[in-house]
Protein backbone atom coordinates (compact mmCIF):
# COMPACT_ATOMS: atom_id res chain seq x y z
CA UNK A 1 0.00 0.00 0.00
CA UNK A 2 1.60 3.33 -1.05
CA UNK A 3 1.98 6.13 1.48
CA UNK A 4 1.38 9.77 0.80
CA UNK A 5 5.04 10.43 1.41
CA UNK A 6 4.90 14.09 0.55
CA UNK A 7 6.85 15.65 3.38
CA UNK A 8 9.75 17.62 1.90
CA UNK A 9 11.94 17.01 4.91
CA UNK A 10 15.63 16.27 4.42
CA UNK A 11 16.61 13.37 6.62
CA UNK A 12 20.15 13.31 8.04
CA UNK A 13 22.44 11.93 5.31
CA UNK A 14 23.38 8.88 7.38
CA UNK A 15 19.80 7.92 8.19
CA UNK A 16 18.69 6.62 4.79
CA UNK A 17 21.47 4.05 4.40
CA UNK A 18 21.05 3.18 8.09
CA UNK A 19 17.33 2.59 7.48
CA UNK A 20 18.10 0.45 4.42
CA UNK A 21 20.52 -1.60 6.51
CA UNK A 22 17.92 -1.93 9.29
CA UNK A 23 15.32 -3.24 6.86
CA UNK A 24 17.82 -5.71 5.36
CA UNK A 25 18.54 -6.94 8.88
CA UNK A 26 14.84 -7.30 9.62
CA UNK A 27 14.60 -9.47 6.48
CA UNK A 28 17.53 -11.54 7.71
CA UNK A 29 15.97 -12.06 11.15
CA UNK A 30 12.65 -12.98 9.52
CA UNK A 31 14.36 -16.02 7.98
CA UNK A 32 15.03 -17.32 11.49
CA UNK A 33 11.72 -18.96 12.21
CA UNK A 34 10.39 -22.13 13.81
CA UNK A 35 7.98 -22.75 10.96
CA UNK A 36 8.91 -22.90 7.30
CA UNK A 37 7.29 -20.25 5.10
CA UNK A 38 6.00 -18.15 8.00
CA UNK A 39 7.53 -16.19 10.88
CA UNK A 40 6.99 -17.79 14.27
CA UNK A 41 9.60 -17.21 16.94
CA UNK A 42 8.71 -18.25 20.46
CA UNK A 43 10.73 -17.36 23.52
CA UNK A 44 13.55 -19.63 24.78
CA UNK A 45 13.75 -21.70 21.58
CA UNK A 46 16.83 -22.54 19.47
CA UNK A 47 15.41 -20.10 16.90
CA UNK A 48 15.40 -17.33 19.49
CA UNK A 49 18.99 -18.28 20.31
CA UNK A 50 19.89 -18.00 16.62
CA UNK A 51 18.35 -14.54 16.37
CA UNK A 52 20.06 -13.39 19.56
CA UNK A 53 23.44 -14.60 18.30
CA UNK A 54 23.00 -12.62 15.10
CA UNK A 55 21.95 -9.46 16.95
CA UNK A 56 24.79 -9.99 19.46
CA UNK A 57 27.27 -10.17 16.56
CA UNK A 58 25.97 -6.82 15.24
CA UNK A 59 26.18 -5.34 18.75
CA UNK A 60 29.80 -6.50 19.14
CA UNK A 61 30.69 -5.04 15.75
CA UNK A 62 29.14 -1.73 16.86
CA UNK A 63 31.52 -1.55 19.81
CA UNK A 64 29.14 -2.77 22.48
CA UNK A 65 29.77 -5.25 25.26
CA UNK A 66 27.09 -7.91 25.16
CA UNK A 67 25.52 -10.09 27.82
CA UNK A 68 22.39 -12.07 28.59
CA UNK A 69 20.58 -11.67 31.88
CA UNK A 70 19.22 -14.63 33.83
CA UNK A 71 15.91 -14.88 32.02
CA UNK A 72 17.65 -14.57 28.65
CA UNK A 73 17.18 -10.95 27.57
CA UNK A 74 20.01 -9.83 25.28
CA UNK A 75 21.70 -6.60 26.37
CA UNK A 76 24.34 -4.59 24.52
CA UNK A 77 26.09 -1.75 26.34
CA UNK A 78 27.68 1.27 24.68
CA UNK A 79 29.59 2.95 27.47
CA UNK A 80 29.22 6.55 28.58
CA UNK A 81 31.93 9.17 28.22
CA UNK A 82 32.36 9.22 31.98
CA UNK A 83 32.42 6.51 34.66
CA UNK A 84 29.46 5.96 37.02
CA UNK A 85 27.07 7.46 34.51
CA UNK A 86 23.37 6.54 34.42
CA UNK A 87 21.89 4.36 31.69
CA UNK A 88 19.37 4.98 28.94
CA UNK A 89 17.71 1.78 27.72
CA UNK A 90 16.50 1.52 24.13
CA UNK A 91 14.78 -1.66 23.12
CA UNK A 92 11.88 -3.90 22.26
CA UNK A 93 11.33 -7.64 21.81
CA UNK A 94 12.58 -10.35 19.44
CA UNK A 95 9.83 -12.95 19.94
CA UNK A 96 6.81 -12.96 17.66
CA UNK A 97 3.23 -14.14 17.41
CA UNK A 98 2.43 -17.09 15.13
CA UNK A 99 2.61 -16.14 11.42
CA UNK A 100 3.98 -12.73 12.32
CA UNK A 101 5.30 -9.75 10.42
CA UNK A 102 8.94 -8.68 10.34
CA UNK A 103 8.86 -5.44 12.31
CA UNK A 104 6.78 -5.76 15.48
CA UNK A 105 9.60 -5.93 18.03
CA UNK A 106 12.77 -6.23 15.88
CA UNK A 107 12.29 -2.64 14.64
CA UNK A 108 12.88 -1.25 18.14
CA UNK A 109 15.92 -3.42 18.81
CA UNK A 110 17.51 -2.70 15.43
CA UNK A 111 16.82 1.04 15.82
CA UNK A 112 18.74 1.06 19.10
CA UNK A 113 21.58 -0.74 17.37
CA UNK A 114 21.55 1.78 14.48
CA UNK A 115 21.68 4.62 17.01
CA UNK A 116 24.81 3.14 18.58
CA UNK A 117 26.39 2.51 15.16
CA UNK A 118 25.92 6.18 14.33
CA UNK A 119 27.64 7.16 17.60
CA UNK A 120 30.47 4.71 16.93
CA UNK A 121 30.92 6.05 13.39
CA UNK A 122 31.27 9.60 14.70
CA UNK A 123 33.44 8.50 17.64
CA UNK A 124 31.01 9.97 20.14
CA UNK A 125 30.17 8.84 23.64
CA UNK A 126 27.30 10.34 25.60
CA UNK A 127 27.18 11.33 29.26
CA UNK A 128 25.11 8.16 29.84
CA UNK A 129 25.48 4.49 28.99
CA UNK A 130 23.30 3.52 26.09
CA UNK A 131 22.00 -0.02 26.45
CA UNK A 132 20.13 -1.79 23.71
CA UNK A 133 17.86 -4.39 25.25
CA UNK A 134 16.17 -7.16 23.27
CA UNK A 135 13.47 -8.76 25.41
CA UNK A 136 13.21 -12.53 25.06
CA UNK A 137 9.43 -12.69 25.56
CA UNK A 138 6.79 -10.05 25.04
CA UNK A 139 4.07 -11.66 22.94
CA UNK A 140 3.65 -14.60 25.32
CA UNK A 141 2.96 -17.08 22.50
CA UNK A 142 4.73 -19.99 24.19
CA UNK A 143 3.55 -19.70 27.82
CA UNK A 144 0.30 -17.83 27.18
CA UNK A 145 1.40 -14.83 29.17
CA UNK A 146 3.08 -11.54 28.27
CA UNK A 147 6.08 -9.38 29.17
CA UNK A 148 8.14 -12.17 30.79
CA UNK A 149 11.36 -10.50 29.61
CA UNK A 150 10.56 -6.94 30.66
CA UNK A 151 8.90 -8.06 33.93
CA UNK A 152 12.18 -9.73 34.91
CA UNK A 153 13.91 -6.38 34.36
CA UNK A 154 11.22 -4.40 36.21
CA UNK A 155 11.23 -6.86 39.12
CA UNK A 156 7.64 -7.96 38.50
CA UNK A 157 8.48 -11.50 37.45
CA UNK A 158 6.66 -13.83 39.85
CA UNK A 159 8.38 -17.09 40.86
CA UNK A 160 5.05 -18.86 40.22
CA UNK A 161 5.50 -18.20 36.52
CA UNK A 162 8.30 -20.79 36.50
CA UNK A 163 5.68 -23.56 36.78
CA UNK A 164 3.82 -22.42 33.65
CA UNK A 165 3.98 -25.03 30.90
CA UNK A 166 4.02 -24.70 27.13
CA UNK A 167 1.94 -26.85 24.76
CA UNK A 168 4.52 -29.65 24.98
CA UNK A 169 4.40 -29.67 28.80
CA UNK A 170 7.83 -28.03 29.22
CA UNK A 171 7.92 -25.76 32.25
CA UNK A 172 9.12 -22.19 31.95
CA UNK A 173 11.94 -23.01 34.39
CA UNK A 174 13.19 -25.84 32.13
CA UNK A 175 12.81 -23.71 29.00
CA UNK A 176 14.91 -20.93 30.55
CA UNK A 177 17.54 -23.48 31.64
CA UNK A 178 17.68 -25.06 28.18
CA UNK A 179 18.09 -21.57 26.74
CA UNK A 180 21.16 -21.05 28.92
CA UNK A 181 19.49 -18.86 31.54
CA UNK A 182 19.18 -19.34 35.28
CA UNK A 183 15.58 -19.43 36.56
CA UNK A 184 16.73 -19.31 40.19
CA UNK A 185 18.37 -15.92 39.77
CA UNK A 186 15.75 -13.98 37.82
CA UNK A 187 15.22 -11.66 40.79
CA UNK A 188 18.74 -10.37 40.07
CA UNK A 189 17.65 -9.22 36.61
CA UNK A 190 15.72 -6.36 38.21
CA UNK A 191 17.40 -3.07 37.36
CA UNK A 192 18.01 -0.49 40.05
CA UNK A 193 15.87 2.55 39.16
CA UNK A 194 18.55 4.84 40.61
CA UNK A 195 20.91 3.82 37.78
CA UNK A 196 18.41 4.42 34.97
CA UNK A 197 17.63 7.58 32.99
CA UNK A 198 14.72 6.00 31.17
CA UNK A 199 13.49 3.53 28.60
CA UNK A 200 12.76 4.49 25.00
CA UNK A 201 10.94 2.12 22.66
CA UNK A 202 10.44 2.50 18.95
CA UNK A 203 7.59 0.40 17.58
CA UNK A 204 5.35 0.16 14.55
CA UNK A 205 2.07 1.93 15.22
CA UNK A 206 -0.17 -1.14 14.67
CA UNK A 207 -2.95 1.28 13.81
CA UNK A 208 -3.91 3.67 10.99
CA UNK A 209 -3.59 7.10 12.67
CA UNK A 210 -0.16 8.11 11.30
CA UNK A 211 -1.02 6.86 7.83
CA UNK A 212 -4.22 8.90 7.81
CA UNK A 213 -2.31 11.98 8.95
CA UNK A 214 0.50 11.36 6.37
CA UNK A 215 3.10 11.63 9.12
CA UNK A 216 5.99 9.15 9.49
CA UNK A 217 6.33 9.11 13.30
CA UNK A 218 4.25 9.93 16.37
CA UNK A 219 4.91 10.37 20.08
CA UNK A 220 2.81 8.14 22.31
CA UNK A 221 1.01 9.78 25.23
CA UNK A 222 -0.06 6.66 27.10
CA UNK A 223 -0.55 2.96 26.66
CA UNK A 224 -4.24 2.27 27.05
CA UNK A 225 -5.60 0.48 30.07
CA UNK A 226 -7.81 -2.48 29.44
CA UNK A 227 -10.80 -4.15 31.06
CA UNK A 228 -11.87 -7.54 29.76
CA UNK A 229 -15.21 -8.93 30.78
CA UNK A 230 -17.28 -12.08 30.38
CA UNK A 231 -20.97 -11.18 30.25
CA UNK A 232 -23.82 -13.68 30.29
CA UNK A 233 -27.44 -12.98 29.41
CA UNK A 234 -29.86 -15.65 30.66
CA UNK A 235 -33.38 -16.11 29.37
CA UNK A 236 -35.50 -19.15 28.68
CA UNK A 237 -35.24 -21.76 25.97
CA UNK A 238 -38.36 -22.52 23.99
CA UNK A 239 -39.66 -23.94 20.76
CA UNK A 240 -38.90 -21.69 17.78
CA UNK A 241 -42.28 -22.47 16.30
CA UNK A 242 -44.66 -22.33 19.24
CA UNK A 243 -43.60 -19.53 21.63
CA UNK A 244 -45.13 -16.18 20.56
CA UNK A 245 -42.69 -13.33 20.09
CA UNK A 246 -44.06 -11.18 22.94
CA UNK A 247 -43.68 -14.04 25.44
CA UNK A 248 -40.06 -14.84 24.64
CA UNK A 249 -37.04 -14.33 26.89
CA UNK A 250 -34.45 -14.53 24.12
CA UNK A 251 -30.93 -14.19 25.53
CA UNK A 252 -29.34 -13.70 22.11
CA UNK A 253 -31.60 -10.75 21.24
CA UNK A 254 -30.62 -9.17 24.58
CA UNK A 255 -26.94 -9.70 23.83
CA UNK A 256 -27.39 -8.30 20.32
CA UNK A 257 -29.05 -5.14 21.66
CA UNK A 258 -26.21 -4.73 24.13
CA UNK A 259 -23.47 -5.23 21.50
CA UNK A 260 -24.91 -2.44 19.36
CA UNK A 261 -25.21 -0.23 22.46
CA UNK A 262 -21.49 -0.79 23.16
CA UNK A 263 -20.68 0.32 19.64
CA UNK A 264 -22.88 3.41 19.89
CA UNK A 265 -21.43 4.46 23.26
CA UNK A 266 -17.80 4.06 22.28
CA UNK A 267 -18.16 5.74 18.90
CA UNK A 268 -19.01 8.95 20.74
CA UNK A 269 -16.05 8.72 23.09
CA UNK A 270 -12.70 9.90 21.66
CA UNK A 271 -9.83 7.39 21.90
CA UNK A 272 -12.15 4.78 23.44
CA UNK A 273 -12.29 1.37 21.82
CA UNK A 274 -14.52 -1.53 22.79
CA UNK A 275 -14.83 -4.91 21.15
CA UNK A 276 -17.10 -7.90 21.51
CA UNK A 277 -14.96 -10.60 19.95
CA UNK A 278 -16.57 -13.81 21.18
CA UNK A 279 -20.13 -14.96 21.42
CA UNK A 280 -21.42 -18.31 22.66
CA UNK A 281 -25.10 -19.15 22.43
CA UNK A 282 -26.74 -22.02 24.30
CA UNK A 283 -28.15 -24.42 23.30
CA UNK A 284 -26.87 -23.18 19.91
CA UNK A 285 -29.61 -24.92 17.94
CA UNK A 286 -31.45 -23.41 14.97
CA UNK A 287 -34.99 -24.20 16.16
CA UNK A 288 -34.59 -23.35 19.87
CA UNK A 289 -34.83 -19.86 21.41
CA UNK A 290 -31.38 -19.14 22.91
CA UNK A 291 -31.48 -19.58 26.70
CA UNK A 292 -28.05 -18.27 27.56
CA UNK A 293 -25.52 -16.17 25.70
CA UNK A 294 -22.03 -15.32 26.91
CA UNK A 295 -20.02 -12.60 25.21
CA UNK A 296 -16.57 -11.16 25.75
CA UNK A 297 -16.11 -7.42 26.05
CA UNK A 298 -12.72 -5.69 25.75
CA UNK A 299 -12.69 -1.97 26.67
CA UNK A 300 -9.57 0.20 26.32
CA UNK A 301 -8.75 3.84 26.98
CA UNK A 302 -5.68 5.83 27.95
CA UNK A 303 -7.46 7.29 31.00
CA UNK A 304 -8.30 4.85 33.79
CA UNK A 305 -11.18 6.77 35.32
CA UNK A 306 -12.78 7.34 31.92
CA UNK A 307 -12.49 3.63 31.07
CA UNK A 308 -14.02 2.66 34.39
CA UNK A 309 -16.82 5.19 33.98
CA UNK A 310 -17.71 3.79 30.55
CA UNK A 311 -17.61 0.22 31.89
CA UNK A 312 -20.07 1.26 34.60
CA UNK A 313 -22.35 2.92 32.03
CA UNK A 314 -22.26 -0.21 29.90
CA UNK A 315 -23.13 -2.33 32.93
CA UNK A 316 -26.13 -0.11 33.64
CA UNK A 317 -27.19 -0.39 30.02
CA UNK A 318 -26.94 -4.21 30.16
CA UNK A 319 -29.01 -4.22 33.38
CA UNK A 320 -31.66 -2.07 31.72
CA UNK A 321 -31.81 -4.36 28.69
CA UNK A 322 -32.20 -7.37 30.98
CA UNK A 323 -35.06 -5.72 32.93
CA UNK A 324 -37.02 -4.87 29.80
CA UNK A 325 -36.44 -8.29 28.26
CA UNK A 326 -36.93 -10.31 31.47
CA UNK A 327 -33.41 -11.69 31.36
CA UNK A 328 -30.85 -12.10 34.12
CA UNK A 329 -27.33 -10.77 33.85
CA UNK A 330 -23.96 -12.09 34.97
CA UNK A 331 -21.19 -9.47 34.62
CA UNK A 332 -17.67 -10.61 35.41
CA UNK A 333 -14.35 -8.77 35.02
CA UNK A 334 -11.77 -11.36 33.93
CA UNK A 335 -8.76 -9.11 33.39
CA UNK A 336 -7.95 -5.51 34.12
CA UNK A 337 -4.77 -3.57 33.70
CA UNK A 338 -4.42 0.14 34.24
CA UNK A 339 -3.33 2.66 31.63
CA UNK A 340 0.39 3.45 31.55
CA UNK A 341 1.12 7.11 30.90
CA UNK A 342 4.39 7.88 29.13
CA UNK A 343 6.72 10.13 31.12
CA UNK A 344 5.91 13.78 30.27
CA UNK A 345 9.52 14.98 30.56
CA UNK A 346 11.08 12.19 28.49
CA UNK A 347 8.23 12.36 25.96
CA UNK A 348 8.75 16.13 25.81
CA UNK A 349 12.36 15.56 24.76
CA UNK A 350 11.20 12.99 22.21
CA UNK A 351 8.68 15.51 20.86
CA UNK A 352 11.39 18.16 20.64
CA UNK A 353 13.53 15.63 18.73
CA UNK A 354 10.68 15.06 16.26
CA UNK A 355 10.46 18.82 15.64
CA UNK A 356 14.22 19.27 15.51
CA UNK A 357 14.36 16.55 12.85
CA UNK A 358 11.80 18.60 10.91
CA UNK A 359 8.63 16.56 11.29
CA UNK A 360 5.18 17.62 12.46
CA UNK A 361 4.57 16.59 16.05
CA UNK A 362 1.63 14.26 16.49
CA UNK A 363 0.66 12.72 19.80
CA UNK A 364 -1.37 9.52 19.96
CA UNK A 365 -2.30 6.86 22.48
CA UNK A 366 -1.31 3.22 22.09
CA UNK A 367 -4.16 0.74 22.11
CA UNK A 368 -1.75 -2.20 22.21
CA UNK A 369 0.49 -3.17 25.13
CA UNK A 370 4.28 -2.97 24.92
CA UNK A 371 7.37 -3.80 27.00
CA UNK A 372 7.25 -0.14 28.03
CA UNK A 373 4.29 -1.03 30.30
CA UNK A 374 6.53 -3.16 32.51
CA UNK A 375 9.49 -0.78 32.23
CA UNK A 376 7.34 2.17 33.39
CA UNK A 377 7.27 0.61 36.86
CA UNK A 378 10.98 1.29 37.35
CA UNK A 379 11.93 4.16 35.04
CA UNK A 380 10.48 6.97 32.91
CA UNK A 381 9.36 5.69 29.51
CA UNK A 382 8.77 7.19 26.10
CA UNK A 383 7.49 5.53 22.98
CA UNK A 384 7.89 6.52 19.33
CA UNK A 385 5.49 5.03 16.79
CA UNK A 386 6.45 4.52 13.16
CA UNK A 387 3.76 4.58 10.47
CA UNK A 388 2.94 1.13 9.14
CA UNK A 389 0.98 0.20 6.04
CA UNK A 390 -2.76 0.00 6.67
CA UNK A 391 -2.14 -0.17 10.42
CA UNK A 392 -1.63 -3.91 9.96
CA UNK A 393 0.38 -5.88 12.53
CA UNK A 394 0.66 -9.42 13.88
CA UNK A 395 0.40 -10.47 10.24
CA UNK A 396 2.85 -11.20 7.38
CA UNK A 397 1.55 -8.09 5.58
CA UNK A 398 3.17 -5.83 8.21
CA UNK A 399 5.12 -3.19 6.24
CA UNK A 400 7.10 -0.02 6.86
CA UNK A 401 8.69 2.41 4.41
CA UNK A 402 12.40 3.03 4.32
CA UNK A 403 11.81 6.80 4.48
CA UNK A 404 9.76 6.42 7.65
CA UNK A 405 12.40 4.25 9.29
CA UNK A 406 15.02 6.84 8.31
CA UNK A 407 12.84 9.52 9.92
CA UNK A 408 12.53 7.45 13.10
CA UNK A 409 16.29 6.89 13.27
CA UNK A 410 16.87 10.60 12.75
CA UNK A 411 14.46 11.38 15.60
CA UNK A 412 16.15 8.83 17.85
CA UNK A 413 19.52 10.41 17.05
CA UNK A 414 18.21 13.88 17.98
CA UNK A 415 16.58 12.41 21.09
CA UNK A 416 19.77 10.96 22.57
CA UNK A 417 21.67 14.17 21.84
CA UNK A 418 18.97 16.38 23.38
CA UNK A 419 18.98 14.13 26.42
CA UNK A 420 22.78 14.35 26.54
CA UNK A 421 22.63 18.15 26.39
CA UNK A 422 20.07 18.28 29.12
CA UNK A 423 22.10 15.97 31.32
CA UNK A 424 25.30 18.01 30.76
CA UNK A 425 23.48 21.24 31.63
CA UNK A 426 22.08 19.57 34.72
CA UNK A 427 25.48 18.48 35.96
CA UNK A 428 27.00 21.93 35.34
CA UNK A 429 24.43 23.69 37.52
ZN1 LIG B 1 5.57 -5.54 19.80
Tags for this entry?
single chain, about 425 residues, alpha/beta, Aminopeptidase, Alpha-Beta Plaits, 2 domains, 9-stranded mixed beta sheet, 11 helices, elongated, disordered N terminus, binds zinc ion
Using the CA coordinates, give the radius of gyration.
24 Å
**Shape verdict:** elongated
Bound molecules: zinc ion
Assigned CATH superfamily of the largest domain: Zn peptidases
Question: How would you characterize the largest beta sheet?
Answer: 9 strands, mixed
Could you name the CATH topology of the largest domain?
Aminopeptidase
CATH class of the largest domain: Alpha Beta
CATH architecture descriptor text of the largest domain = 3-Layer(aba) Sandwich
* SS element count, helices: 11
Strand content: 15-25%
Alpha-beta classification: alpha/beta
Fraction of helical residues = 25-40%
Number of strands: 14
The stretches of 5 or more residues where confidence is low (pLDDT under 50) are 1-9
Q: What's the rounded overall pLDDT mean? A: 94
Distance between the termini: 51 Å
Order of helices and strands: HHEEEHEHHEHEEHEEEHEEHEHEH
